[in-house]
Structures are given as C-alpha cells and as structure tokens.
Prior knowledge:
- This protein has one domain (3-290): NADP-dependent oxidoreductase domain (TIM Barrel), CATH 3.20.20.
- The protein is 40% helix and 15% strand.
- The protein is built from twelve helices and ten strands.
- The protein has an eight-stranded parallel β-barrel with strand order 3-4-5-6-7-8-9-10, surrounded by five helices. A two-stranded antiparallel sheet has the order 1-2.
Amino acid sequence: MRYRLLGNTGLRVSELFLGAMRFGGGGTSREECARIIDHYTEAGGNVIDTAVNYGDGESERAIGAVLGARRDRFVLSTKYTLSRDPGDANAAGNHRKNLVRSLEASLRQLGTDHIDLYWVHVWDRDTPVEETMRALDDVVRAGKVLYIGISDTPAWVVSRANTLAELRGWTSFAGIQVPYNLLERDVERDLLPMAEALGLSVAAWSPLAHGALAAAPDERTRAVVTELRAVAADLGATPAQVAIAWLLARPGAVHPITGAGTVEHLADTLGALRLELPAEAADRLTAAGRFTPGFPRDFIEGLPPWVFGDAHSSLVRR
Length: 318
C-alpha cells in the first residue's frame, strides 16, 4: 500500500480507503468486521470511512469495538448530514445544531475523543455555507475534529466554501467524496478539475458502480464490461482489480473506497495494488466509456487558434 498526503495537509492516507457502510447493521458481523480490518491493516491501509447513521449507528459502534486500543493507528473518517431521527426536523442537514449533535453521537459510538477526518455527507441547500464552514472550524479548534471534507456537492459550492474559509482564516476542506468509476464519470466535468486546481484529495465511492460493471444492462455498459474483461484476461487479473487500478491511474489524488463485506472480497480488491496497468490498457478502458465533459470544457478546448492568438501555441504551462 502506498500513501498520499490528504489535500494540502501533512496527513498520510493510504491509497485505498476501507468503506464500512455494511459493518454491523449492514449485514457484516463484528467478527467479520474484525477480520476485514485486520486484513486491510496488514496490507498497509489506514483509513476507515463510515457515517453516523450507517446501520443506525452500528457501523461506528462496530469499528470502535474492533479498533479498541489500536484506534490512533488509523485515520477515522465519518460523516454527518443525513437524518438520525425522521421525526426531528433538526436531526438532519448541515446546520450547526445537527453538526454538533451528530459529532457527539459519532464520538460516543466510535469510543474516541476526536474524529480524524469529518465529512459533510451531502450538500444541504437550506443551510448557508458560511454557517457550515464556521461550525466546522469551531469543532476543529475545539480539538474534536482534525481535518474536514465534503461529499456529493457541486464544484461551485466547494470552491465558494474554501474561498470563504481562506479569506476568514477558517479550516478548509481537504478532500471531496464523489461517485467515480468506469461508467459514472460525470465528476470529470467540474469536480475533478476543481479538486486538482485546489489541491484536494478525491475519495471515490462506488468504484465498481454498485455491481453494474457485472450486470451490463445497456449498450454503453456492455462495451465497458467487454473491454474490462478483455484487459483483465490480458493481465491475468480480475475485472474488479482492473476497475480499481484504472481509478488509481487517473490524474489527481483519487482514493477508491472499497466497501468490502467479506475478507475474500477485500483480498480481491487489494490485488489491484499489485497490478501494473499499462497506459495502453488504461486508454482502452477510458475510450470504451465514450465520455465527453460537455460544455463549457469541450467548447473551450475546441476553440480555434485565432481566439488567443499565434503565441498561444508556444505558451509553456506549469
């Protein structure tokens, strides 16, 4: 396992994150959770990602119980936003009250006094981003959270949030979480270029497209799956390993979140770390998806030479 720095911080995070959505209440027993975490640790992994409401809190409780005295060897990553109580209007959202109550619940359930990486789970259009950023900065200053990130949010919102944080001396987001795989590449339009420009890490959830890479229900998916299986056969690897390796080879700091339900599943995924994906194979997979970013990126990249003048082609970019 290799490591990267989290965004513009000094925190070392492994290239694969372990997703714990199915731990405990999600169908994976605590005994199997322990086996999965041990196997992930032996491979060098150090990031475990969950959320306050996964399995009605059982995911966090299972992680806390399994880690015990080893807790400080891991980067504990959890999220808030989603409802903890459908009958309580303030038990969801990105406002200060839900942040504080959710964080307190996560600390209890994980059995720890701080969260290493705290994520906003999804954009809440009804809460001003200024309130969210200031509230997050407060819990960082209080020592209850070390680093922050945001998931499932438009690029313009993330950019505005980090600009506000920079101007006001608040803690900025160090990473984003997005769905990203061979089939779902919408994030290449705005979110990934933004992350690269701002130096943010990218945690990719659903790296295997929720099993769609195996189902092949439509023509585009069938084309991707056919190429994926062909590349896997050429390399003597499994399709899942090749799909993960493709993500690891993408530009920027992309960290696939592998949501293993069994040790065997995790062991197969970890095989991607030993796989050298040739550039030609990566290009074949990328082309099979027939994805284009669309306007405005396609328009800007296709502008004729006269738009910026003759010297534009001689410009040396960093």
